[in-house]
Amino acid sequence: MAFLFSGGFLPYILLVMVPGLVLSLWAAYRVRSAYGKWAKVDSGITMNAFDFARYLLNAQGLNGVSVEPTPGSLTDHYDPRSRTLRISTGVANTAGQRGFGRSGGGQMGGSPMSGGPMGAPMGRGYAYGVSTAPGSIQPGDGRLSVAQVAVIAHEVGHAQQHARGDLMMSIRQVIVPVAQLGSTLAPWLIIIGVFMKLSGLAVLGLAFFAGAVLFTFVTLPVEFGASNRALAFVGPLGLTGERGEGARQVLRAAGWTYVAAALTALLTFLYYVTLVFGGRR
């Protein structure tokens, strides 16, 4: 199969771009499908998205982490540099906060957090529905869906990883600069090196791209670890049984997007390796 890799751009399309696109589309479909399904199911938690994030953070002793809105849908993330948890406006405003459809045998019973609005302890950034971020949305009170709870709890999981010095998260932070170079500059170094027959430049590009590949694989235990923490957070709040399985499905689907990214990066790296060293024969 090596001759296919060194045969020009067509092998790249057939062996990297097409499989990578298929994997990415499949993973994205799973996320949208799982989130769409469980966004219609009541979690039993009566609180808006931002107050819930504040509540979970404070419950883990993470009072110093800010909570802010961020544009988009499913763009939720935790920024360890500023210790900020950002919730996407799409997740915060998911349709159905005030009225959920029935799932399975009907709307599920209450949770330890149902029965009325539950104010989160005051903290930095966002509390009781009032954001300090400029131009932020003001979400209404309502019942959170299972999908919303899963996504928010996952980001709280990242905040806890950071606070507790999670090894894989620390490694990921260290290799971020190399990964950024690897995903932007490295392909150009490799292509120019191969075209100009500058083997040293091409190998340097490979080294940087290897850092980007390593980043995608180190990300896997970080993401799956945050999901495991999320499930541990929400179980005592009433997300057990069908609701617990729903949260698990949402988080598992999201995890596959990182698996797809890692496999695509690995395929690209193997193509570059055969492109660089295959041309030496």
Give the helix level as a range of percent: 55-70%
SS elements, strand count: 7
Structural class per helix/strand content?
mainly alpha
Rg for CA atoms: 22 Å
Number of domains: 1
Number of helices: 9
Average pLDDT taken over every residue:
82
Q: Which descriptor suits the 3D outline?
A: elongated
First-last Cα distance: 15 Å
* Element string (H = helix, E = strand): HHEHEEEHEEEHHHHH
Considering the chains and any ligands shown, give keywords for the structure.
elongated, 60% helix, three-stranded mixed sheet, 281 residues, mainly alpha, two-stranded antiparallel ribbon, 9 helices, disordered N terminus
Describe, in plain words, how this protein is organized in 3D.
- This protein has 281 residues and is mostly helical.
- It has one domain.
- Helices cover 60% and strands 9% of the residues.
- A 3-stranded mixed β-sheet has the order 2-4-3. A two-stranded antiparallel ribbon has the order 1-7.
- A hairpin with a 4-residue loop joins strand 3 (77-79) and strand 4.
- The radius of gyration is 22 Å and the shape is elongated.
- 38% of the residues are buried.
- Mean pLDDT is 82; it is low at 1-6 and 102-140.
Could you write a compact summary of the structure shown?
With 281 residues, this protein is mainly alpha-helical. The protein has helices spanning 2-5, 9-38, 49-59, 89-92, 146-163, 167-184, 186-195, 199-234, 241-278, and strands at residues 42-46, 66-70, 77-79, 84-88, 126-127, 130-131, 143-145. It is elongated.
Topology, element by element:
Elements lengths: L1 H4 L3 H30 L3 E5 L2 H11 L6 E5 L6 E3 L4 E5 H4 L33 E2 L2 E2 L11 E3 H18 L3 H18 L1 H10 L3 H36 L6 H38 L3
Parallel strand pairs: 2-4
Antiparallel strand pairs: 1-7, 3-4, 5-6
Helix pairs in contact: 2-9, 3-5, 5-8, 5-9, 6-8, 7-8, 8-9
